[in-house]
Amino acid sequence: MTANKDQTPSNEYTPPKIWTNDKENGGKFASTNSPTAGTRHEQTLPVGDAPLQLYSLNTPNGVKVNILLEELSELGIKAAAYDAYKIDISEGDQFGSDFVAINPNSKIPALVDYSNKNEPIQLFESGSILLYLAEKFEKFIPMQQGSKRANCLSWLMWQMGSAPYLGGGFGHFYAYAPEPMEYPINRFTMETKRQMDVLNKHLEHTTYMCGDTEADYTIADIIIWAWYGQLALGKLYDAGEFLQVDSYQHLQRWAKLIAKRPAVQRAVDLELKPIS
């Protein structure tokens, strides 16, 4: 789709002085959308025997944590063993009492570290979980203060700030909204392509996000690949042709390189246990 500045909107909308939730939001997840937070039903989450308990779904946000846990497993770190449980967001599992107790924002993924049985550590937000695990095991992140660590954290936060425009913006209006709308699709397509161009230009000069050696493969690669690597490989929203993802050659090279990793291959199709 292309923008047409002379187009007259078919359905003009004037925002009211006060917004009210008086009609269905529409779209794929309309049944779970609400302007309020908190528990909607009682729910007991299972707890397995492993030190780490993951409650998630194999969406791009969920895959981030899957990848890091599988990379730690690839290194033989037994303390990073985990049980993974499925939180079906289309069924509203994210609003169950136990899940909300871990993540009051009711979004996947969420993780509990039971390494210290007397004081379990609860984590939510994918970036927070990746940073916690990387620092806990001193893997996939530069531990020493300096330019390498700063670069890694900068790209980590770049993804956290950028991906909502891709998922909640482009993805929603292109794939999930009840009907196609030209303005938001154009707006978020432009931003998504700009973000891919940022990555493409950066990856022209470096093998991984933060360097050229295997040791430079970090949580910055993991967190960005889950969204933008999969997007570049045509695995999100059936939008590869629309976005011309093949034209971003350096992003393509990087995305394919990460996709070959055994841990990544296991992570994208990770088997999640039912919660009931």
Could you give the topology of this structure?
Elements: E1 52-56, H1 60-74, E2 82-86, H2 97-102, E3 110-113, E4 121-124, H3 126-137, H4 147-176, H5 182-203, H6 219-232, H7 240-243, H8 249-259, H9 262-268
Parallel strand pairs: 1-2
Antiparallel strand pairs: 1-3, 3-4
Helix pairs in contact: 1-3, 1-6, 1-9, 4-5, 4-6, 5-8, 6-8
The CATH class designation of the domain at 147-261 is Mainly Alpha
Overall number of strands: 4
Strand residue percentage = 5-15%
Assembly context of the chains:
single chain
What's the overall geometry? Answer: globular
Order of helices and strands: EHEHEEHHHHHHH
Strand order of the largest sheet: 2-1-3-4
**Secondary structural class:** alpha+beta
* Mean pLDDT over the residues: 94
Major sheet description: 4 strands, mixed
Question: What is the percent of helical residues?
Answer: 40-55%
CATH topology of the domain at 147-261: Glutathione S-transferase Yfyf (Class Pi), Chain A, domain 2
For the record, the CATH architecture of the domain at 147-261 stands as Up-down Bundle
Radius of gyration, in angstroms, nearest whole number: 20 Å
Q: How many helices in DSSP terms?
A: 9
**Separation, N- and C-terminal Cα atoms:** 44 Å
Unreliable runs, pLDDT <50, ≥5 residues?
1-8
